[in-house]
Amino acid sequence: MKDIRQREAERQRLYREVRIECEIAPLDHRIARLRAEIRERIHHLRSLRDKGFPDADSQLVLRLVCRTLSVDREYRQTLLRTILRSRLA
User: Considering its fold, how many domains does the chain have in total?
Assistant: First the structure.
């Protein structure tokens, strides 16, 4: 009987891990893309400054991308907490 419980517990643990991976992985990829875009925009912003061009528009876009990244990170944490909470139920 103990083996059956252990196998069931292992099956549930694997199911949760797969669920976390399936739901979190796309969000992780989006966060990585946003971070890369932020790095590119910072580089572009610096080059505009060096050339003497106004950078107000680029700064606005950079702020928006940073906010988007922040929201995506918060969503990821909330999603992970929800999945782990359902795991405990």
Answer: 1
